[in-house]
Design the sequence.
């Protein structure tokens, strides 16, 4: 049991595109990573060691990529470790490509294209793409992906510094700045992006249409007035934020996939704080990032449990795609012993712990409050604050 390590060089990647490399990749399509060492030893009797290492590494990356690209595309595409990590998942890229197409865009300059995830989605929407990246290996991978998926006629891959590319001949610009560093990890300062957000914004303002992909945690004060800001979640997980230019300046919206469903800000004041009602609504993360909790509260006729907490409470159940609803059965001050007693009394066997505004770790509370199953019932406990006081709300999902 073990794994063969390999750093992909341009030469090794080129070898993967040869008939010998393609044969190896086909052979490794359904390989078991736990058996890599034995498999590598066998394959190296017939193939160069560097090629075997590159093929095994690529096979692993393809297996990882299934979650983002689907099994069919992942099995044909090529990846780098950073490419798998940072690429836009297909559902989000397809949604954005459709948005460009509905805006009448027929050509896009995709700057910082990476391995080509967004370029592929744009091309599949019938849009001509100039895909630009400064890293030679990344460009080679993006070019190979366009070929593998039959989209080379619509995607031109260019190795260049994006700040030096003339985008004047394109209907729109899409910029996906690097937001990770090999030394520092995730980058939170938009001006530390590569290229900086200020450059991306200035480039966007010069284009007929533009979209800038940014981290969903960007401070709202860093969003330019000319931007139409959109936060996107997929299956309940917040994936990214996008600043659109040439659409609706000043708009704030949350888009939920699949769907899509879009909640648009109306500039509502903060909801009032009220006592906990029968139902608790947990807004989607994109709604929270877009600061649209007030819109959800108005939709369900509710208020906040605390002025600093994004939980909405109401006395009646109202269906909404923008928040998950829970029926609350108990409200307790934070006390592990009382919670344990309640769980035993209710014969709870499955405990889900959620928190917002609490320093307690869910796993720690789960271990202390329910060291063993007390029965078969399932409940959800919310660790939060109600009117400033540490509180536990006990309930179950509705529907």
Sequence:
């Amino acid at each position: 049991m073990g794994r063969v390590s390999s750093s992909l060089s341009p030469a090794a990647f080129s070898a993967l595109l040869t008939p010998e490399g393609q044969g190896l990749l086909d052979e490794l399509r359904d390989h078991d990573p736990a058996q890599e060492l034995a498999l590598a030893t066998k394959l190296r009797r017939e193939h160069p060691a560097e090629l075997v290492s590159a093929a095994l590494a690529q096979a692993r990356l393809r297996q990882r990529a299934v979650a983002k690209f689907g099994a069919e595309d992942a099995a044909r595409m090529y990846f780098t470790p950073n490419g798998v990590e940072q690429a836009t998942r297909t559902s989000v890229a397809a949604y954005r490509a459709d948005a460009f197409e509905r805006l009448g865009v027929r050509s896009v300059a995709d700057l910082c294209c990476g391995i080509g995830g967004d370029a592929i989605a744009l091309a599949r929407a019938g849009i001509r793409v100039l895909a630009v990246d400064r890293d030679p290996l990344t460009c080679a991978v993006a070019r190979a992906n366009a070929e593998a998926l039959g989209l080379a006629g619509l995607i031109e891959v260019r190795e260049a510094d994006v700040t030096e590319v003339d985008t004047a001949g394109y209907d729109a610009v899409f910029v996906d700045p690097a937001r990770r560093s090999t030394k520092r990890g995730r980058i939170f300062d938009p001006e530390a992006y590569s290229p900086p957000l200020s450059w991306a914004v200035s480039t966007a303002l010069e284009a007929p249409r533009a979209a800038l992909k940014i981290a969903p945690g960007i401070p709202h004060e860093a969003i330019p007035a000319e931007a139409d800001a959109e936060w996107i979640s997929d299956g309940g997980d917040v994936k990214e934020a996008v600043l659109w230019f040439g659409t609706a300046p000043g708009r704030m919206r949350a888009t939920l996939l699949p769907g899509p469903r879009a909640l648009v800000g109306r500039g509502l004041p903060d909801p009032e704080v009220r006592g906990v009602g029968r139902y608790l609504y947990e807004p989607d993360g994109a709604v929270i990032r877009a600061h649209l909790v007030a819109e959800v509260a108005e939709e369900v006729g509710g208020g906040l449990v605390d002025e600093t907490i994004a939980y909405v409470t109401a006395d009646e159940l109202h269906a909404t795609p923008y928040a998950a609803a829970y029926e609350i059965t108990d409200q307790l001050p934070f006390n592990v012993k009382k919670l344990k007693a309640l769980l035993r009394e209710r014969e709870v066997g499955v405990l889900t712990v959620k928190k917002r505004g609490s320093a307690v770790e869910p796993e720690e509370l789960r271990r202390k409050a329910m060291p063993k199953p007390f029965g078969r019932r399932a409940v959800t406990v919310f660790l939060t604050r109600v009117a400033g006081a540490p509180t536990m709300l006990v309930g179950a999902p509705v529907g």
In short: Confidence is low (pLDDT under 50) at residues 1-6.
